[in-house]
């Protein structure tokens, strides 16, 4: 694969991930509403959709890591920024904007996902108190 193809693949991956995040954010918001409503059926459905998008994001991240490694760059944030700095200015500016937008979207999704996790943990604690059953730890039977 040529250098140009690798860079085009990275750019396309960033754009695809931005679309995934744009789809993920409203699903996480919906998940929060369903958690508040304790709608187990709705949560199961939205959970599947969320998992599909997360799988796509994970796969894309692995491809980015592989591409950066193939280019001899660190497979992390610094490697991506180093690559962007080495591109011609017009492409560099465009890619940097897309990369920053992706980082912002990922941070929003992560924050909402963490909040949803906190809500779920809180509900489980309340449920355990109401039913008199001790919460099962990770991997333990209830």
Could you explain how this protein is built, in words?
- The protein has 142 residues and is mainly α.
- The chain has a single domain (3-131), classed as FlgN-like (Methane Monooxygenase Hydroxylase, Chain G, domain 1, Up-down Bundle), CATH 1.20.58.
- Helices cover 83% and strands 0% of the residues.
- Helix 1 packs parallel to helix 4 and helix 3 packs antiparallel against helix 4.
- The longest helix has 43 residues, at 89-131.
- It starts with a helix and ends in an 11-residue tail after the last helix.
- The mean pLDDT is 89.
How many strands, which pairing sense, and closed or not: the largest β-sheet?
none
The overall average pLDDT, rounded, is 89
Q: How does CATH name the architecture?
A: Up-down Bundle
Number of helices: 4
CATH superfamily: FlgN-like
Radius of gyration: 20 Å
Summary?
The chain has helices spanning 3-36, 40-70, 77-86, 89-131. It has 142 residues and is mainly α. The mean pLDDT is 89.
């Amino acid at each position: 694969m040529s250098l140009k193809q690798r860079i085009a693949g990275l750019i396309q991956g960033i754009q695809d991930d931005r679309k995934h995040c744009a789809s993920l954010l409203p699903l996480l918001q919906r998940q929060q509403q369903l958690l508040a409503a304790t709608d187990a059926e709705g949560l199961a459905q939205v959970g599947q959709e969320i998992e599909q998008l997360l799988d796509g994001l994970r796969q894309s991240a692995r491809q980015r890591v592989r591409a950066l490694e193939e280019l001899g760059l660190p497979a992390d944030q610094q490697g991506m920024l180093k690559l962007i700095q080495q591109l011609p200015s017009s492409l560099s500016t465009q890619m940097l904007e897309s990369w920053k937008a992706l980082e912002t979207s990922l941070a929003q999704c992560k924050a909402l996902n963490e909040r949803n996790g906190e809500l779920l943990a809180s509900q489980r604690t309340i449920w355990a108190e109401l039913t008199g059953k001790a919460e099962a730890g990770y991997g333990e039977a209830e």
